[in-house]
Design brief:
Elements lengths: L2 H9 L3 E6 L6 H14 L3 E4 L6 H14 L4 E3 L13 E7 L5 H18 L2 E9 L8 H6 L9 H13 L4 E5 L10 H10 L4 E4 L5 H9 L4 E4 L1 H5 L1 H13 L3
The chain binds SN-glycerol-1-phosphate.
């Protein structure tokens, strides 16, 4: 079952997910942010960050669960971020990392916990596109086979590999707080060559950019940093995503 495809089909709209980093605020504040984004129409809350502790993730998930009636999806940086109260987990492989750790080891370390906790896994090919002069956090830790802006052939090889492996979605990531989001032509190339849902995130800060990304083929827009900085902009982004008719 491809949950993302089902959600896209049911809503007949593009989707917006809000990413909350448990390291950036207390669980109560995270819950308030989730409630605000929920009132604006976000479709799911992703919980994850680069230095999260299991306790912090779990407390944040529990607080958000109390505050909103939305799916909560773990977006783990490691097996340490697998906690029991989430509904879903992006069971992800950082395809263009050269580190075995991000390709399979963290996944091995977390698989039994996903089973034991009964969290629904959504398999994901996670691909980082380098758009920033200053490396984002994921770029600094992942030892990437770098995909430069505009290198469509290289991106397509990775994206097709995700689909041929049977992964349920592809996430094109510019990195949290990226100077620029993933370029439109790269999104369009993946959209026109793949049939699995396409998630795009990193560096999206306004409604116009979000709309641009969905118009070029993104099915799901993820925003994180802007929810911490400017709630009016989050509203604008969610409205832009929702305005787009499939
Ligand atoms: C990070 O793509 C997400 O994984 C969100 O990025 O924080 O730049 O919105 P931002």
């Amino acid at each position: 079952m491809n949950v993302l495809r089902e959600w896209l089909g049911e809503k007949k709209k593009k989707l917006h997910f809000t990413l909350i980093d448990p390291d950036k605020q207390a669980p109560e504040k995270a819950a308030k942010m989730a409630a605000t984004c929920s009132s604006y129409g976000t479709d799911a809350i992703m919980v994850g960050g680069s230095t999260v502790s299991r306790k912090n993730v779990e407390e944040t998930v529990v607080a958000i669960k109390d505050a909103v009636n939305l799916p909560i999806i773990l977006f783990p940086n490691s097996s340490n971020a697998v906690t029991e109260s989430a509904d879903y987990i992006f069971f992800m492989c950082l395809l263009n990392s050269k580190k075995r750790r991000f390709l399979v080891e963290e996944q091995l370390a977390g698989a039994l916990a996903v089973k034991e906790y009964g969290i629904h896994p959504i398999s994901m090919g996670y691909i980082v596109v380098s758009t920033s002069k200053k490396p984002t956090t994921v770029e600094s830790i992942a030892d990437l086979d770098i995909i430069q802006e505009g290198d469509i052939q290289k991106l397509l090889k990775y994206a097709l590999t995700a689909e041929y492996y049977g992964m349920q979605c592809v996430y094109l990531e510019a990195g949290s707080g990226a100077e620029k989001p993933v370029p439109n032509e790269m999104i369009m190339a993946v959209h026109s060559n793949l049939s699995i849902p396409l998630i795009v995130g990193g560096g999206i800060r306004d409604g116009k950019t979000a709309l641009d990304k969905v118009e070029h083929g993104a099915d799901v827009i993820v925003t994180g940093t802007i929810a911490e900085e400017n709630q009016t902009k989050v509203k604008e982004i969610i409205e832009a995503v929702k305005e787009y008719d499939l």
